[in-house]
Amino acid sequence: MNYKDVIRRKLISLSNYVKQLLPITEYTYEEYVSNYFIYYTGERLIQLIIETCMDINSLIIEYEGLKPPKSYYESFIILGDKKILPDKVARQLASFTGMRNRIVHQYEDVNHKIIFDNYKNLIELVNEYIDVVTEFMEGIDE
Description:
mainly alpha
């Protein structure tokens, strides 16, 4: 498998998802919560962003020959422990796997306020993730 090409394509998708999420941060909470098109779009983009990160994590873990993670959360922690991701980024993005799970599996009522309040943080974290993974890829042989 050409890890570099696959990761590169996923990073492009990830970057596009972040760009699509940005306009949602311009709404007030009241506008956001009163328009289900807006909040469902935001929730779907969170899902796509976190799942794409998890896919990239899995590819890096496989490329590095590391033990496969037992959970999506753990995929971020492994990369933080191995210093592939900054620990802060790894741990904060790992916490978004729980949000993704609540959205996707509807384990409980989704708290729109918590989601809304975390969009900007997610965007910042994912932009840093993209930068770090792009730098990591420079060391991957084609």
